[in-house]
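Schema walk-through. Below, the input block comes first and the output block second. Nothing else is stored per chain. Lengths vary across the set, and this one has 130 residues.
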Amino acid sequence: MKGLKRFLIQGNVIDLAAAFALGAAFNSVVQSFVADFLTPLLSALGGLPDFSSLKVTVGRSDFLYGHFVNAAISFLMISAAIYFLVVRPYRQHRDRTAATVGARTRDCPECLSKIPKAASRCAFCTAQMA
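--- output ---
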């Protein structure tokens, strides 16, 4: 029981739980954005707001491929929204931050670790810097 308690209190489990909760909340925001903004925009351009009524009848069976089309369009819209609202801004921020950090560090010639430019010795291998 002590091991289970230690496992549950570890930082990565708590971080994962927080990420899951944030992901669920973000999912509802993105779904609302797609349903309330992007889908009406698509219907204004294309003229057909809902594809769920599309079907093919083979014998006595109806294949409702319209639901699949709706799900595929929703997936593409959600993917685009996540890319443009989260991934792209994060990458731009990360690249700017990395450029700033890279300007303040250099590689140690002995162990190739990143060290501050002002350092006279490497903190990892203690080699003298020129």
